[in-house]
Amino acid sequence: MKQTESSIPDAPGAVETSRERILRVSADLFAEKGYHATGITEILDAVGLGRSALYHHIRSKENLLYDISIAPLREVVVEARRIADLDATAADRIVLLSQDRLKTVSRRRSQWNVALYQSSNLSPELRAEVDLTLELYEAIWERVLMEGMEAGEWNPVPPLVLKGILGMLNGTYLWLDPAGELAPAEIAQMFANLVLLGLRKRPDIVQNWLSPDTVVDFGGIAGGIEP
Known about the structure:
Layout lengths: L17 H16 L6 H8 L3 H7 L3 H24 L5 H18 L1 H9 L6 H27 L8 H12 L13 H16 L3 H7 L18
């Protein structure tokens, strides 16, 4: 099947094309109202195009949903592969993976909503492509966690832990504000610190954590403490 290309301009000052505007506005509508509750007429009105002009850029409403869903997933897979191949500790790569994920979420909040929660409306064939891309991304995280375990950075990690980590990152599209007090990279660092706190072979930290009088300095955990 021929793949369509989906993109939304990221560079400041970049000129948005008609297709990019269609994808952005449609993602916002799907995220707010749901795929089935959003009609083509509503999309036409929102983007300010006629029907023939719209279908010059998209093949169908379903393919529009696919294009919106697959773009952020492919983006994070490409960058996650690069990060996983870095000559760095697994802990450092966990931080970088977390930061990249929140960076893309901050730029594409509506697209992440659609990819995770609206793509179930796709045909089995198209949905399978979305699921495969999600599995590829999860496999990269699993590889880094396994390499950290093999290097002695942390204890064996049950598969359920990875589901929890990714679930924590997935949910950020609901509230992450790129213009908020904390930058996405800072929030990602905090999340990664929490993950590493749980993974590290540091029984002293775990024991102290149970004490209500103990304050843990999260800023020094990621990458700076030997297991």
